[in-house]
Amino acid sequence: MVKTDYDIAIVGGGLAGLATAIQLAKKAYSVVLFEKEEYPFQKVCGEYVSLESWAFLESLGLPLHKMSLPLIDTLQLTAPNGKELFTKLPLGGFGISRYLLDKSLADIAAKSGVTILQKTKVDDAKKQDDLFVISFPGNAIKTKVCCAAYGKRNNLDVKWKRPFLRQTSSRLNNYIGIKYHVKTDWKDNVIGLHNFENGYCGISKIEGNEYCLCYMTKAENLKACDNSIEALQENILAQNPHLKKIFSQSEVMKDFPVTISQINFGAKEKVQDGILMLGDAAGMITPLCGNGMSIALHTAKLAAALIDAFLQGKFSQSEMEEAYKKQWNKAFASRLKAGRFIQSFFGGKRLSNFFVGTFKAFPFLTKPVIKLTHGKPF
Ligand SMILES: Cc1cc2nc3c(=O)[nH]c(=O)nc-3n(C[C@H](O)[C@H](O)[C@H](O)COP(=O)(O)OP(=O)(O)OC[C@H]3O[C@@H](n4cnc5c(N)ncnc54)[C@H](O)[C@@H]3O)c2cc1C
After folding, report:
1. What sequence ranges are listed for the domain Squalene epoxidase (predicted)?
2. Most CB atoms within 10 A, among 59, 208, 215, 222?
3. pLDDT tens for residues 180-236?
4. Is 49 in the pocket of ligand 1 (CB under 6 A)?
5. Residue 190 lies in a domain
6. Domain of 58: which CATH number?
C-alpha cells in the first residue's frame, strides 16, 4: 500500500473527470485522476458540443474563442426514405474533436496541479471507514472523496454489479458506435442527422478541415451484416440517399474508424457506495439529442461545488450525496427521459419516415422537441 494520500480521486479522464479535477485543483485541493488511455486519443463521439457549455469550458481555462472552431446553428434531419427538413437550432453548438478537447483539458488539469496517472486502469474503488481505497495494478491509494467518471460502461460497473446491467429492454441497450474523421463536401454551420433502419448517423465539422461522421445502431444490425462494417454501411446506411452520397464522396482519415459496443441508455444510480458518479457513468442521454458532453461537464460543475463544501466541513458525506442526487435529478432527469422517448420514434424505418414527415409538415413542433433535451448555459 502506497501511503500517498490525496483529497480527491477521480476515476476516468474524459470531460466529466477532467472538468471536476480542474475545478478542485484550482481550489488548492490535492487531486489524482486515473485515465486508462494515454492523451491524446480518439473516442467515439459526434463531437458537436452544445453552446450551453461554452462559458463553462472557458472558465476552466480553455480559450475556445481563439481556437477558430466551427459554429453550428442549423440541423438537417433526414428519414431513411430521404425526406429531409432543415431547422435552426435554438441555441446551437460548435465542433471540436475529442482528441483535441480532452487533450487540451488534460493539459490544463496538469498545469493546475492535478496528478494525472495515464495508462492506469482502476480495478476497484471502495469505502473503508471514512476514506476511499482506489486500487490499480500493483498499487492502491487512499482519498477523502472519490468520483467515478469512467463513461458509458466499464469493468467497475460489472465489479459493482450495477443494476442497469440487468436492463432487458432492447430499446435501451446493446448499441454500437462507429466514428470516422473525413474530408468531404458539407456545410460548416450544419449538423446532419440521418436516420436509417435502427440507427442514425451524424455529420458536422470539427477543427481543421475535417468532419466527424459518427453513427450508432443496434448490435443486431452489424450481426445481420456478418459483422462487417463495410457491409453495414452499404446494405443498411446507404438506403438513406443522403448517407449513400456522404459515404461515397468522403475521404476517410488515417486510423479510422474507431468503434465501441454495449452502449446502454438505462437509468443508473448517481451515488455508488459513497462514490459520486459523474457524466455518462451517472446516466447517458441518447446521442440523437446531441448533448451528452454538456451534461457530463454540467455534472462536474455540480459535483465540484458540493465536494468543496464537504471538504470545508459544511456538509457531511451523506448530505453531499443527497444534495448531488437531488441536483442531478433536477437538472437532467427529465432531459434523459425525453431523450429515451424521442429515440424510440427513430427506431424502425417506417416510424422515423413518419416522424421526419410529420416534423416537415409541422415545423413549429421541432424547436420545442429539441428544447426538451437541451439545457441552458451553466
Ligand atoms: C455514438 C455517440 C455519439 C455521440 N455524439 C455526441 C455529440 O455529438 N455531442 C455530445 O455532446 N455528446 C455526444 N455523445 C455523448 C458523449 O460522448 C458522452 O456523453 C461524453 O463523452 C461523456 O463524458 P464522460 O466524461 O462521462 O465519459 P468519457 O468521455 O467516455 O470518459 C470516460 C473516460 O474514462 C476512462 N476510463 C474508463 N474506465 C476506466 C478505468 N477503469 N480506469 C481509468 N480510466 C477509465 C476512459 O478511457 C475515458 O477516457 C455521443 C455518444 C455516442 C456513443
Report:
1. 212-310
2. 215
3. 999 999 999 999 999 999 899 999 999 999 999 999 999 999 999 999 999 999 999
4. yes
5. yes
6. 3.50.50.60
